[in-house]
Amino acid sequence: ALGPEVRDGSDEDLRDLAQHLRARVLAGVPLSDVLVQVFALVREVASRTIGLRPFDVQILGGLALHEGKVVQMQTGEGKTLAAVAPVVLNALQGQGVHVLTFNDYLARRDAGWMGPIYQFLGLRVGFVQEGMSPEERRGAYAADVTYATAKEAGFDCLRDALAVEPGMVVHRPFNMALVDEADSILIDEARIPLVIAGNTERQSGQPDRLAAIVRQLVPEQHYVVDRERRTVYVTDDGLDRAEALLGCGNLHTLENLPLLTELNAALFVTALLRLDVDYIVRHGRVEIVDEFTGRVVEDRHWPDGLQAAIEAKEGLRRSVEGRVLGQITLQHFLGQYHHLCGMAATAEAAADELWEVYGLQVLVVPPNRTCIRIDHPDIVFTH
Fold first, then answer.
1. Which three-class secondary structure state does DSSP give residue 57?
2. In a designed cystine with 101, which of 15, 48, 106, 369 is the match (CB 3.0 to 4.6 A)?
3. Is the model's pTM score more than 0.90?
4. pLDDT tens digits, 22-74
5. Could you tell me if 307 and 324 are in contact, meaning their C-beta atoms sit under 8 angstroms apart?
């Protein structure tokens, strides 16, 4: 209903309206009282700045996001644009809004693509990328709207916890997070810890000797691999064989505990970590491959003796040991935001988990036009 009224206003009129609405919110007016005006304003500004006018279904999706739901919209239905109105509405509070994407490219692209809308409305927009300096990150998080990957924001949270003076902290208090690809970030990767590690002096140990001994153990006879649980068990026969090869007596005595730990590490890297799948060897160094992106992760190494074990397995010179300085799962990191919502193309399949873990309801938004594609049952060919 406000469409014609907003459409008749000049650019200056719309900027004045945006400032008026922001002043009202900062004065304590509830967001619900200005929601309709803000959404109408954003729709008109989007049309003028980037040539895209949100459809009614996109406005519906934006309303659900503001209400703290996970919105399911089909691929190509414009989730990126649908997110702008609720982000603008919450950004008027001046406490910052984070749009958490799946990778650096999307964070940079979406900030640049939607940026003209925010700037027209007097809001600052920033984005965070891997490799940015602390000063650049602090500036991005100080903006009204910040696009970043969930992992980068999470690692910055860990680094802030290690800061020794206030000036080193890059985050502000967490206000609102809108999570793109919500099913993947909130469920698939939710319990994988983000770990920040430091270097420590090499510890005494015998990783090369243990690697040679493990090569003499027979799978299924001396140890059993549980790939689903990502663990490996030594059998009674394997324990006897290892003790005989080590000549150490009972491995479960207190003085042999470091040796048993090294044996378990050597078994783990031999049975469960695969070359050119979980890690690669390049320039004489082990480099870890991220299991979700398939990309090599710079300056990451395994803690608790695993790094030494993997280097011994590959016959490499030992590097420095890793020591865990801090860790947090995405689930607990995202739990720090006062207002959490998300969007995805396949959220409905994860609706039960999203409700149980985060208390988030899923709303399925229909496409702007009825889908005329016919999905036939799958056909499986044997050859």
1. helix
2. 106
3. no
4. 999 999 999 999 999 999 999 999 999 999 999 999 999 999 999 999 999 99
5. no
